[in-house]
Amino acid sequence: MKLRSSGREAEKIEPQMAPMIDVVFQLLIFFMLTLNIVEPEGDFNVNMPITDSSKPAEDPQIFPDIKVRLVANEDGSLNTIRLGQVNLGNGPNVFAGLNHEILKIIGKPGNPITKDMEVELEADYNLHYEYTLKAVSACTGRLDSSGKHIIRYIEKIKFAPPVGGEPAGS
User: Fold this and answer.
1) pLDDT digits (tens, 9 = 90+) for 121-155
2) Three-state SS string across the chain, please?
3) Exposure class string for 144-168: b at 16+ Cβ within 10 A, else e
């Protein structure tokens, strides 16, 4: 930009880009920090199933909560397994027994209602991890007779906070 010509060749004046870039970044940071993200309210676009009012509504089959308690000995070995209030013991076939009891509760493997069922595992703090894994395996299903396909019982497993003991470093 040239205001007046004084007889010599016009000098080309370049705008300074560094301050302009600084201002742009400051504006960008300002708007990023002051932006409020608001979740949309109201219209959730839920499609409800259409029912025939002449038929009585079917009560969905309600399954009880399944709680499995793993009790440990002082050395970390398995002392006993409890399914609800039932004591399953600790023998060599205790996990097969747990699997059988879970099957008795759900009725039939692959039942679509069992998709919402959940097993809560509660283990003593000092229990060896291998017993927890075996209990998870017993609750989620078994292999079929050919040993090639998994028959699913329950998909959802949650863990209760460990019972007893102190965390390392306390």
Assistant:
1) 888 888 888 888 888 888 888 887 787 777 777 87
2) CCCCCCCCCCCCCCCCHHHHHHHHHHHHHHHHHHCCCCCCCCCCCCCCCCCCCCCCCCCCCCCCCEEEEEEECCCCCEEEEEECCEEEECCCCHHHHHHHHHHHHHCCCCCHHHHHCEEEEEEECCCCHHHHHHHHHHHHEEECCCCCCEEECCCEEEECCCECCCCCCC
3) eeeeeeeeebbeeeeeeebeeeeee
